Amino acid sequence: MTSQEQTSVRTNFFDTKIEFLKGMGPQRAALLNVELGIFTYGDLLQHYPFRHEDRTIFHRISQLSELMPAAQIKGRLREWTLVGEGNKKRLVAQFSDGSGVLELVWFQGITYFEKSLRPNTEYIVYGKPVAFGSKWSITHPEIELLTAENEKGGYWQPVYPLTEKLRRKFVDSKVIGKLIRTLLEISRPHIHETLPENLVQKYRMVTKADALWNLHNPQSQPWLHQSERRLKFEELFYNQFRLIKNKLLHKTEYPGQVFTKTALLREFYENHLPFELTGAQVRVLHEIREDLKTGKQMNRLLQGDVGSGKTIVAFITMLLALDNDAQACLMAPTEILTDQHYQGLKKFADLLGINIGKLTGSTKKKDREIIHSQLLDGSMQIIVGTHALIEDIVQFKNLGLCVIDEQHRFGVAQRSKLWAKNKYTSPHMLVMTATPIPRTLAMTLYGDLDISAIDELPAGRKPIKTVHRYDAHRLSVFGFIRDEIAKGRQIYMVYPLIEESEKLDLKDLMDGYESISRAFPDVPLSILHGKMKPKDKDFEMARFVKAETKIMVATTVIEVGVNVPNASVMIVENAERFGLSQLHQLRGRVGRGAEQSYCILITDYKISKETKLRLETMCRTNDGFEIAEVDLQLRGPGDISGTQQSGLMDLLIANLAQDGEILKAARISAEAILNTDPDLELPENAPIKKHLSNMRKEETNWSRIS
């Protein structure tokens, strides 16, 4: 071992650079640096396989089926020949096991295989079998010489994330696996336990060292399962430990104004509340009021479907701030949504004699100056606005509450600027979202926030009826539209908008607009799409809100938009091109009034199995939380709108779509330890303290190895 390597090991074994690993070499190390971001022993050991292939069974060629995802066969390589010219040139080998003949085909690496393959020699091949008539073939199979050791079979092959360049350089899963096995053989003395012994015993987990060994070299399926479970638990435990610790720290270090007076609130309840609050709204308001009594800054996420009544909860919370001589602001992502909130709140504010203002990018300079002055002297008690609220010039006398709507549309830096609007004490934060978040995602993304959910619709609201129709049913759909318009209702017709083909989608929209114009020559139409100027969008939307137009032909720009209670039908064209949560958001544009509303999803006949599941889910339920769970299962956590945040994407092995129960157990365990031993002084929690100390020293995840 070189002196440089010895120094590296003494500092931290898992910080050792991978070029020092036997069998690696500088060229291969440089390739792994660039292609996979693997620089150290720690990185390599945490390059986890994403699946394992069953190499415990050998199949006969006579047993092959196209239903098999892959097959392992031992037999004799007879001969091979070059077929075709240019790009179609391929190497085709004949392989037999006595029960039949299998063709092995290579389009790449032809020169290498021509030189390395041995005729009339026994090999093991592995790959996906495909039938062409009576012939079977495997394209680009894994192939290795038959030996006394591998003839036994009986192992699970880890499959690692790779890149095309690595494959071209013949660095495949077997090469990665061999390097990791070499590393594991010298690593074992350095792998220390990272969880308390009582936790390992409670959940009957294997040790950290055994888990790493068997994840990369499973002895059996049960060992593989237990190893994955152990490493997932540890990863989620430390994820939750950090979030809960931050939450507790927040509650102790950030003071907030105490709101106990309720005079305005009582007047609103007794004289002006236009409807009875749902049980869910009452529960959430109780949670908020408890927060506001503590003297600590409230930091709460409020989830609720479109139309569930989040805004009235926000207004009642604002009244608590006003009752206690503080001001409140509500920030929304668009001018349309800001205006909707302003109009909705102003009618209540006027009844109570509250001065409420609106501040957006299009607010005139003269009005802006008045707003700035009134916020500074405290005479304006509530301000509703867009990003304009976070401008430095906007100052408050005493900002006590910030409400942020559609929080995923704002960055952390933007939200934090609102904190700075009160120099003396942090304003309470209530962030709202109409995109229901699955419980596992919420725990991981927002585990440092308190979470409330309004999971019941206001009284009098009828569930939206959702149906799936094919293109061939368009005439009957048009007939239904005529009937609804005759009843005085209004219609949304939405066309997809995919960034990669905006021109094509705009053409779809214009074609749709023309066909609707022909089908309904006497019906006034509006059109709305992302290429329009803001003032033109506002003009078209205003016409629809006033019922001057009866049909709104639009792209998804109306996904989060104005409340039009008279709109009772949402028709989504090419519904197969929308994600599940987006379809649910679009459906939420209707069903805002007391009348029965409908959502019609129109698709082509040719749709995938996954699309069918999405459409069936939409037709079966209006429950946004159930829909979010299905969406998570279908798309995975990284694809769900607004969730690509640090903390979530750091997960190396856990899968939030599948590991909800492990996450729940990890969170309960982290909470219990932090409640009983927040400073980790007890001897049994020493492994956590040591591991966290290592994690703080490292900028990456290397220290997870400990």
From TrEMBL:
Domain Helicase C-terminal: 480-638
One Pfam family named in its UniProt record: Helicase_C
Catalysed reaction, written as an equation: ATP + H2O = ADP + phosphate + H(+); Couples ATP hydrolysis with the unwinding of duplex DNA by translocating in the 3'-5' direction
Single GO molecular function: ATP binding
Helicase ATP-binding domain boundaries: 291-454
Keywords: ATP-binding, DNA damage, DNA recombination, DNA repair, DNA-binding, Helicase, Hydrolase, Isomerase, Nucleotide-binding
UniProt-listed GO biological process terms: DNA recombination; DNA repair
Gene3D superfamilies to which the protein is assigned, alphabetical: Nucleic acid-binding proteins (2.40.50.140), P-loop containing nucleotide triphosphate hydrolases (3.40.50.300)
Keyword ATP-binding: yes
E.C. number(s) listed in UniProt: 5.6.2.4
Entry coiled-coil feature ranges: none
Task of the protein: Plays a critical role in recombination and DNA repair. Helps process Holliday junction intermediates to mature products by catalyzing branch migration. Has replication fork regression activity, unwinds stalled or blocked replication forks to make a HJ that can be resolved. Has a DNA unwinding activity characteristic of a DNA helicase with 3'-5' polarity.
Family that this chain belongs to: Belongs to the helicase family. RecG subfamily.
Record protein name field: ATP-dependent DNA helicase RecG
Organism in which the protein naturally occurs: Dyadobacter frigoris
Name of the gene: recG
